[in-house]
Amino acid sequence: MNRLSSFLFFLALCLYNTSVNFAQVRRSLGPPVNHPTFNEYAPSISANNKTMIFETDRAGEGKWELYYTTKNEKNRWTPPKPIVNINKIGKDNDLIGGPSISYDGKTLFFFASFEGGQGDMDIYHSTWNGTDWSEPKTFGNNINTKAYEGFPSVSADGKSMYFIRDNFSKRKDKALCYTIWVSKKQDDETWGVAEKLPAPINMDCEKAPRIMADNRTLIFSSVRKDGVGGFDLYQSFQEDDGSWSTPINLEYINTEEDDQFASVSAAGDLMYYHTAGDIYTVTIPDKYRKYKLVTVDGKVIDAITKQPIATKLTSKSTNPKERAINTVVDANGLFSMIYRVGSKYDVTTSPLADYLPYRGKMDMSTAKETDNIEKNIELIPKKLVFQFQLLDKDTKAILKDPKVKVMDAETKQLLEVKVDKDIANVTLEIGKLYKFAANTLGYSFFSRSFKPDTVDAFKDRLKKIPLAVLKKDVVVQLQDITFETGKAELKPESGEELDRLVALLDGNKTIKVEISAHTDDVGNDDANLKLSEKRAKAVVDYLTTKGIKADRMIAKGYGETQPLVPNDTDENKAKNRRVQFKIN
C-alpha cells in the first residue's frame, strides 16, 4: 500500500469512527415514538427505563395531549397510546403537557390549562391504580397561582417538587423565559410554599427542570451567554450546605436548535430529551456523572400469603455521608429503590401492627448501573395459625376428639382453640412463650412449653403430637415439676402439670400408677436416692390433697440409677432430673 492509499485508508477509518461515536452520543428514537408529521415533546422515562410518557400534538387540530409507550420483550418501544383518563378532561383548546413520572412509577405530574384552574397553566397529578391513571387532581395555592406553572419534576425521595413559573418577561430573541421554583413536602404530606431557586440556577431565562435520581443533580434548559443555540441544557449539583454549583453546559448534547426537556434514566446512564420536534436519546459521559446509580425493583409481600403490603422502606447507607432513602410502598406492594453503585445499605420497614420489623441489606458494592435487579421483601406476620394433630404413639393413627389447651405463659390467659376435622387450630404470636397441653379419651396427656419463632413461618405448622395409650407399663414424663435445689418441697409452678395428672386419674378411675423421681449424678449416691424418694412422695401427697386415693399410687425414688442420657453436660443433667408416672 503506497502513502496516498495509506492516508486515505486512515482518513476513512477516522471518519467511520467519528460517525460511530456520534451515533453513540445522539440518536433519534425514530418510529413509532417519533412521528414524521407531528411533534414529540417533554419525554419522561420511568425508573426501570421501560415506560415513557411524553407530550405530543398527534391528536391533530393543534391539541397537545399526553401519550405513553412501553418497551416490549425485545426491548423496543411500542406504538404510543393516549392517556385517555387525563386527555379526556381537556377541552379542544386546552394544552396538556410537561409530564413527569415519579421514580416509583405511581404518580404522574403534568401541567394543563383545564377549566377551573387558578392561572394560565396549573400543575396536576394522577396516580396509577394498577390498570390505569386516575382522574387528575390539582395542587393547592402553595404551588399553583394566577401565573403560569408548568413542567413539574419530583425528586426520587418524593420530598421536593421543581417546576417553572412565568417571570413575566420575554427576551429580545423572543424566547419565552421562566424561573425555576421548588416546593418541599411537609410532615403532614402537604406541599409547602414554593421558593424561587437562587443564582446560579435562576439567572434570566430558564425552563423545564429535572431533578435526577440522586436528589441532587438538576438538569434544566436555559438561554445563557455560553450557549450554542437558543435553549441549551445545563447541569448543576446541590452541595451538602444546600447551595447549587455553577451550571455546566452539556456540550455533548447542545446544538443550534432548542435543546430542552431532559429526562434521565434512574441509573443515570441515558438521557432522553427534545430537539427539532423529536425525542432523542444520548449516552451520558462519565465526567458529567457524579454518581452511578442502580435501580432495584420489587414487591413487599406477606411471607405466608404472598399478598402485597403497603409500608415505607428506609435505606441507610453504611457511608454516613449519604442521605437516607425513603420509599413509599402503596397497596400494590410495588417499589423502585435507587441506590448508589458501590454502596451498601441497611433496609428497614416502618412499624406495622400485624408484621414483625424487617431488617435487611442491599449490597451494591459489585452492582453495575446496567443491572436489572429485582428483589422481593417478605414480611413475617406477628401472628400465625398453628395446627395440632394427636396421634397414637405406637400405631400413628389419628386420634379423634382432641382436647387442646394453649395458655399465654406471661398473662396466664387461655387462647381460643378451634377444632376442625380432628385438627386443633390456634393463633400464636411469634416470640411469645406458651404452655401447650393435649389429651384425648383413653390416652395420656402431652404438655410442653412452646415459643414460636420466625423459622416457624416457613415450616409446616402442622404439629403431630404422639400420645401413649393408657395401658400397663406405659411411662409418661411430667413436665415442669420443680423443687428447690437439694430439697423435696414442690415449687408452686409444678401445680399446672400435676393438675393435668389429677384430671387424667379422675377420668380413668381404674388406673393405678407409680410416681417415680430421678436425679442426676451430682453428690452422694445414697443421698440422691433418699432425695428422689422424698420428691416422689411429695408428688403423691399433692395428688392426695386433690382427691386421688392413696391406694391408687405408689411413690418410688430411683436416685441416679436410671439416667435418660449421660450426665456429661448441664443440659443432660437437667433432663435426668425428672418425675414420671407409670401405669401399673
From TrEMBL:
It is found in: Cell outer membrane. Residues 470-584 form the OmpA-like domain. The keyword 4Fe-4S does not apply. Pfam families: OmpA, PD40. CDD domains: OmpA_C-like. The keyword Ligase does not apply. InterPro entries: 6-blade_b-propeller_TolB-like (IPR011042), Bact_OuterMem_StrucFunc (IPR050330), OMP_bac (IPR006664), OmpA-like (IPR006665), OmpA-like_sf (IPR036737), WD40 (IPR011659). Residues 1-23 form the signal peptide. Keywords: Cell outer membrane, Membrane, Signal. It comes from the Bacteria. This is OmpA family protein. It comes from Arcicella lustrica.
